[in-house]
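Q: Could you fold this chain for me?
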Amino acid sequence: MRPCLLLSNDDGLDSPFLPVFAKTLAGVADLKIVVPAGEQSWIGRAYSRHAELAVERREFFGLDCHTVTGTPSDCVNIALGHLCEKMPDAVVSGLNIGQNVALPILWSSGTFAAAVEGAGWGLPAFAFSMRLEKVYYEFCRLRHGPVPESLLRNIEAAAGHAAEFLLEALEKGVCGDGEVVNVNYPEKYTRRNAFLKCVPARAALKSVYVKSGDGKYKFSYSIGLSGGSPKEPTDVECLEKSAACYSKIRVVGD
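A: Sure. Below is the predicted structure, expressed as structure tokens.
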């Protein structure tokens, strides 16, 4: 029996990754898509408390799709509370343009937040992301341009692996109540890359802003890692070795 999946993201309907990921998942599951109307990266767990949100049904390659003029958390909350005829078997977020690694930085991710919302409803939840070379990252995120053929092959490989991993994880109960399975794919991913269980790296927080000449502050992101060597490799270490990886992060309960 095909599972029923709720798919969201933080890059919005215009993400060049979404068509590939959605069509791949639709090949193995009944899929409902509820995504932000515009990009909502780095928004974390925010809800749009002081806004009235518009929900619109959209044509998306023949798939059941809605957009919400809010955050990823808004999307999943509205979907589960109002749009889904029945509870899905899992909430899936991604495929994100760029990696989502390291605690506590993960809590700033809209991709991770959409999955956390699903976990909070007691559902298995998965977040999928792909590290990109800078030239591709800027092109895909800022311009939402057509994906170059070389990158498209990597996205298709990641999407295919994600679909298989999801089915196996749901069948074996890999994701427990209140947990998010966070998956990252390296640059130039192919199915030949290793897939490893990992733990989130620990980030040493520091200022993520730089002061410009006019006295204003501009966001400038880089990961600074704190010390410590866990028994399992970290997500950052795996990506540095060109390995795909997954970690389980408890977000609700003990």
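A (continued): The helical segments are 18-26, 72-83, 110-120, 134-143, 149-172, 235-240.
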